[in-house]
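Encode chain A's predicted structure.
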Amino acid sequence: MSGKVMTALRNASRRLRWLGGRGWSAQDFSARYAKASGDVWGYRASPDHLARAEWIVAALPQGRFRHVLEVGCAQGFLTERLAPLADRLVACDFSPKAVAQAQRHLAGAPQVECCVADIRGGFPGDDFDLALFSDVLYYLSKRETDGVLAEAANRIAPGGHILIANEWRAEAQGLTAPDYAFTRLDGDRAWRRVTQTRRPFGAGEFVLGLYRRNVAG
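Encoded structure for chain A:
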């Protein structure tokens, strides 16, 4: 079966899942991670993405963290920048190939645990004082996003933070806009918005929202 046919079948399957309230799966990324192990997203060679990583780190609410969760770590591009700031960092992705590649990049950081996990099935741990979702939630359906945010309120320690960062274009199809998650958090008494910023990025924008888990929430 040709590559074009396989791609068409994967796209059709993804659209059907989306219509059924289910977001993207690890299989949707398998072909990309199978192509190369170095920089399949082009982050390390991109001045724009290097700058974006700096924006994310600059938005962190403090200089050091006890227990961090990074969801959707991919090959560990942001993980490498978070590692020096954490006593313990759990970096997860639902793609086994991505996690294997991240482990190689983070081999010299013993405080980092790279693991395969689909956040929709539960968080890989609890009592986090920071959870970072970078270019993750828009791959989830609205129903799945609701479940993940509800779980975050149980898994992030009171006084801890959730940081959501996403590239976005208004014309994007088959993705959930970042504003959906922000609206849900704004309406949840468990959370207090700390900051929300937007800036031009490529053909769209880069949006970032930081929320604090209320102590009594």
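The two ends are 53 Å apart (CA to CA).
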